[in-house]
Amino acid sequence: MGSIQCLIIPADLDVLVQTMELEQGDIKTMQGIVDGHFQVLELEAQKASMFVNEEGKNIGLKMNQRATMLLWLSDSVWRFQDVVAGNVFIIGPPDDEGDSTSVPQELVDLLFSTEKYKGEVTTLSDEDSWSSNNLEFTDYWDAAHSVLELASRWQLVREARVVAA
């Protein structure tokens, strides 16, 4: 087993999102990050896996706004239906042998190396093309909030995402 890179998204908005090296299969460290036993939510759009505290909402952990937005952007079935509570970490999908892989570099680059962001949506009448307005943001989470707010008002929105502007 080797080490992989993970992305940690704290529930506390005052604590920055960061990357960290994690030993594959280090259950104790994984449980330490999420403060308990975890469950895995697949982030289809990001080709990644989000590890969350499986009892987070039941035991009163603080809502994780950033992880919730990322989940809602990953697949519209989650949007406005459920929230994530507590600290989370994200890694890549399992490889062919079922071993953990590093968080996709594309996601790390988007979050940490992008200067400007914009939100894009597909609509029920045109599910194959992404559209955006002229709004640009210097913060990924501000762009995510904006595009999700649009999706809450415009019922024709099918999928939403944040990309480099």
Shape: globular
Number of helical stretches of at least 4 residues? 4
Oligomer classification: single chain
| Uncertain parts | none
List how many beta strands DSSP finds: 8
Series of H and E elements = EEHEEHEHEEHE
Radius of gyration: 16 Å
- The tally of structural domains comes to 2
**Structural category:** alpha+beta
Strand fraction: 25-35%
**Spatial strand order of the main sheet:** 2-1-5-4-3
Q: How is the biggest beta sheet arranged?
A: 5 strands, antiparallel
How helical, in percent, are the residues? 10-25%
Architecture overview:
The protein is α+β, with helices and mostly antiparallel strands and 165 residues long. The protein has two domains: 3-104, no CATH class; 114-164, no CATH class. The chain is 24% helix and 30% strand. The chain is built from four helices and eight strands. Strands 2-1-5-4-3 form a five-stranded antiparallel β-sheet. α2 (65-74) crosses α4. It is globular, with a radius of gyration of 16 Å. The model has no long low-confidence stretch (mean pLDDT 95).
Key attributes of the depicted protein:
2 domains; alpha+beta; 165 residues; 30% strand; five-stranded antiparallel β-sheet; 4 helices
